[in-house]
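README, section 4: Worked example with a bound small molecule

Sections 1 through 3 covered apo chains. Here we extend the same pipeline to holo records, where the ligand is supplied as SMILES alongside the sequence. The molecule in this example is adenosine-5'-triphosphate. Nothing else about the input changes; the structure line simply encodes the ligand pose together with the chain.
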Amino acid sequence: MAERIALACEGLTKRFGGFKAVDNVSLTVREGTIHALIGPNGAGKTTCFNLLTKVLQPDAGRIAYFGRDVTRLQQEAVARLGMVRSFQISAVFLGLTALQNVRVALLQRTGLGPKFWRPARAMGHLDGEAARLLGEVGLEADAGTRAAQLPYGRKRALEIAMTLALDPRMLLLDEPMAGLGQEDVARITALIRRVSAHRTVLMVEHNLSVVSELCHTITVLARGSILAEGDYQRVSTDERVITAYMGVEAVQEAA
Ligand SMILES: Nc1ncnc2c1ncn2[C@@H]1O[C@H](COP(=O)(O)OP(=O)(O)OP(=O)(O)O)[C@@H](O)[C@H]1O
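The generated complex, written as structure tokens:
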């Protein structure tokens, strides 16, 4: 069977004033793979990710999701097509329990988001599904715990459960390991691998050992352009990639 392309962009460009933060980037994310966007600081990863996730509009280029042109669609519209950017920890309601937070995300999927201040009884039918999603991320025992009380790694897992509540076919994760300690990194790595079964994942990630362990394809950006692409073995031995990373380190050391 022919391999399908989940997400593709062509000639993606974004300027801030006269500066091109993303310069003519074309990449394809194959269905069912975990694909990473890496690169030294200031490479344009976040800008590129924000373009792909519809937070920013490109100045040039086009984006296709499963063959459909989504370049001009809003974030909510692409989410309805199954392309979902992860909830940020800041989007978690700290005063609500883990279960209630997932319920809020489920309401968003059903289009009832803005009306979620409704009697608890009226939302009870969502609790089964919310509990199942908490189980999927290993938080079943924390269903009744207020999000404020959850340790950071568990908040990250809750964030993933809330993202899964939107029933994504493709997950877009923005630095999922940021701020996590060693043990949590291992847990969240395993969790992403688990939830990526039957889904496609694109992630921006600084932690290269996680990238090497988890990702099938890696796109390396530097100065807004693609420097190299391939599996970890290939990109990590690419002279241009080594120079790009070392160059930045050398500049930082000298500063
Ligand atoms: N809103 C903006 N206005 C002006 N310049 C911006 C803006 N956003 C990003 N830039 C610039 O674009 C370049 C790429 O930034 P971006 O945040 O995309 O890089 P990055 O690879 O994600 O970096 P980091 O790893 O440090 O997060 C940087 O030089 C940055 O200063």
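What to look for in the output: The chain has a mean pLDDT of 90. Residues 239-254 form the longest helix (16 residues).

Section 5 describes how to batch many such records.
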